[in-house]
Amino acid sequence: RAAFAARGVPEPHWWVAGYDGIAEIPAGAIGKQYADNTALGQPWDLSVVADYWPGVDQAPADPPNPTVRRNDMHADLQLNHPIVLTNPAAVLGGTSQLLLASDFGDATVRIATFSLKSGSWMVLPPASIGRLAGAYKLALPPDTNKVSVELTSGTGAVGLDVFA
Predict the structure, then answer these.
(1) Half-sphere exposure of residue 68, counting CA atoms within 13 Å on the CB side?
(2) How do strand 31-35 and strand 15-17 relate by DSSP bridges?
(3) Of 38, 105, 113, 117, which is the most buried if we count CB atoms within 10 A?
(4) Is pLDDT above 80 for 59?
């Protein structure tokens, strides 16, 4: 690989034979033989191959434009351990959505937001999160720069997601 790079020549497509039992293709390769017949005690080898091999396979179609917002952040809240996050959309002048949900128990969460416009923190009423209820959703407007979230009581972890 170094010789090709040193001469400015595009690398050929290559396949690795590395008998470490790990079915993972190394960066730049199109396949890896990860177990040989000696290790398997069988008359065959095991390999993993890339879904697309340039020059052999038809080029994949461009993925469609997503119609949902992407998840910019995820954290699992732990009891009495607040986290402070920066609103990812604030610098771009857009809004984000903060979602809180619990699959394993009921919980109470304290949320405070910092507004660039007012220059101050606002503590919201405690939010109840239920394992059988829908997610708690909070819109974060463009002037909301920081958000503090703390799990204050509950029987299970609460997942926090931010979509920008």
Answers:
(1) 5
(2) parallel
(3) 113
(4) no
